[in-house]
Amino acid sequence: SPALIGCFIVDRQYFQEIGLLDEGMEVYGGENVELGIRVWQCGGSVEVLPCSRIAHIERAHKPYTEDLTAHVRRNALRVAEVWMDEFKSHVYMAWNIPQEDSGIDIGDITARKALRKQLQCKTFRWYLVSVYPEMRMYSDIIAYGVLQNSLKTDLCLDQGPDTENVPIMYICHGMTPQNVYYTSTQQIQVGILSPTVDDDDNRCLVDVNSRPRLIECSYAKAKRMKLHWQFSQGGPIQNRKSKRCLELQENSDMEFGFQLVLQKCSGQHWSITNVLRSLAS
């Protein structure tokens, strides 16, 4: 198994040799994933024993906050910085936070990096190729975050209702439905990123008969749909084929007074939160 849950059987001496659990993590959340990655990259393996008998006795009163989000996020970034090499950007993208100056103190990781060097561990790319080839790689993403129009900066591009494929503008909250990813192939992907090749594909913004729609990227590509957009930070978003721009239009019938339209470019400007590499228009 590429990773493990929080209960496992391990040889005590081996566990000590590979560094036990990371004492720099807070509360819990992420230590099991870190251990799985470390074991594989450092020459070990994780096996699932389906006939095992285990029990979990939960304490009656937990001495920590019920909302562990901040701790899990911090722990995840700690794992990324020690073990994930050039793929650490995936964790920052998943949490929708900037890779530089995130404002999150992950603690001192000097000892954990030294442990990795001492154990002569393999790269995270090796782990992805050899242990978890089903995991999708998103090295082509060059910008991510929420996408805002200068005409109405308190609204963000949103995937809209799950049952529909119509993107909307909604009050900015920065949660998963408003996650936007711009790729080096000029695709705009909206919503959750598909974790593995076996899951549903990501959804791309497409010009469908002059209307903005969210279509599975692989389907849109196979059907040669209009899914490529020219975009530079602070500039317009223009479809490469139709030459129409994604813009806001006032509409009193919409919940927040604006709707997304594709029309002749009028000079509206868009900005995305985090840029990893230059956005060439």
Domain module count: 2
- Strand-pairing-aware structural class: alpha+beta
Distance linking N and C termini: 42 Å
- Helix fraction, binned, reads 10-25%
What sort of overall outline do the alpha carbons produce when their principal axes are compared? elongated
Low-confidence stretches: none
Major β-sheet profile: 8 strands, antiparallel
Tally of helical segments: 7
Radius of gyration from the CA trace?
A: 22 Å
Topology-level CATH name of the largest domain: Trefoil (Acidic Fibroblast Growth Factor, subunit A)
CATH architecture of the largest domain: Trefoil
The H-and-E topology, N to C, reads as HHHHHHEEEEEEEHEEEEE
Structure, explained:
There is one protein chain. The protein has 281 residues and is of the alpha+beta class. Helix content is 22%, strand content 22%. The strands form three sheets. Strands 1, 2, 3, 4, 5, 6, 7 and 12 form an eight-stranded antiparallel sheet that branches. Strand 8 and strand 9 form a beta hairpin.
Reconstruct the topology from this structure.
Blueprint: H1 12-17, H2 31-41, H3 69-83, H4 89-95, H5 110-118, H6 124-130, E1 141-149, E2 152-158, E3 168-171, E4 180-183, E5 188-190, E6 203-208, E7 211-216, H7 217-222, E8 229-231, E9 237-239, E10 245-250, E11 258-263, E12 270-275
Antiparallel strand pairs: 1-2, 1-4, 1-12, 2-3, 4-5, 5-6, 6-7, 8-9, 10-11
Helix pairs in contact: 2-3, 3-4
